[in-house]
């Protein structure tokens, strides 16, 4: 395959060993200018000192873009309105971050008149797909640089990368290899690889950063109330917060009670199984709270239709199709169902568990007079006889059939 001609590359840059090496390698391999781009989506102190490091590694320019509110408002909240969970457990914290990063990366590339965008994802993972499907949707004219799939990329180990960095005087912290890899943002932290590749091995307790061990959580439960408007959380304990601040507050509350840990062997889009351990404390609480308000406000058939699409919606995010027309079409349907999802949920948090203990809404479809065993409420119980007979017709016919 012929080497593409590249003049200016915008590289998704984390400041870690891989992207630090890629920055210099791409400069030399393509003979191009490299601009380092970092999206702040809630990594905390991991972003400190990145500009100095990027420029010292050879970047012609460095962009640090604060995307926390945009990430929460335009990516996380639409996903939460769908109640999306991948394979029953994964709340898609890393998956939903990639299209947010790619969108701004393309905007920076346009601003800089760049002809290429690049990433440091490996050829085995999901992230390469998520980045590149987003690039294809947003800027199909840009060349994509993915060094880990390049046949001329000769690095096979962390040792090789460190040796190259030392030879090129790239500023890195050359430490002993971590026993696992991590990825952090506003919504969660993921852990995978290394010692976690043994699916029987229990994760080390000192690995976790957002949550305390449930057995070390407070001995008294905490009650928390979450307000929703049109399917989006807007307040916690009656305090209105911006989307990013609300997620952060939910993380703090849930984290101190050990809520939101997941240990999952999942099916990657590229075809292999992979073990991932996740902390998503705030997202776990918000998922339960959202469900509580929906229980009051969603029509049965609208709710069941939305639920029937959740698996497909979650797959689209996990696979990297955020900007695809089918995801956008599903989003339009889901958002239509969420117009009435306004109200308040009350939850109890205790020793790693979350329980719905109350919900209220001005849009409630719940009629206590109809539901009550004590009142008739205008419901004629005799009407149920015809309803049952009609629904039983086909079952009676099947039983009588000679086949």
Would you mind describing this structure in some detail?
With 403 residues, this protein is an alpha/beta fold. Among the domains are: 8-68 and 92-167, Rossmann fold (3-Layer(aba) Sandwich), CATH 3.40.50.620; 181-298 and 341-360, Alpha-Beta Complex (Argininosuccinate synthetase, chain A, domain 2). The chain is built from 12 helices and 14 strands. Helix 5 links the parallel strand 4 and strand 5 (143-145). The longest helix has 20 residues, at 300-319. The mean pLDDT is 94.
Write the layout of secondary structure elements.
Elements: E1 8-12, H1 17-30, E2 33-40, H2 50-56, E3 61-66, H3 68-81, H4 93-111, E4 116-118, H5 127-138, E5 143-145, H6 158-167, E6 181-184, E7 189-192, E8 222-229, E9 232-236, E10 239-240, H7 243-255, E11 261-267, E12 273-279, H8 281-297, H9 300-319, H10 325-337, E13 343-350, E14 353-360, H11 368-371, H12 383-400
Parallel strand pairs: 1-2, 1-4, 2-3, 4-5
Antiparallel strand pairs: 6-7, 7-12, 8-9, 8-13, 9-10, 11-12, 13-14
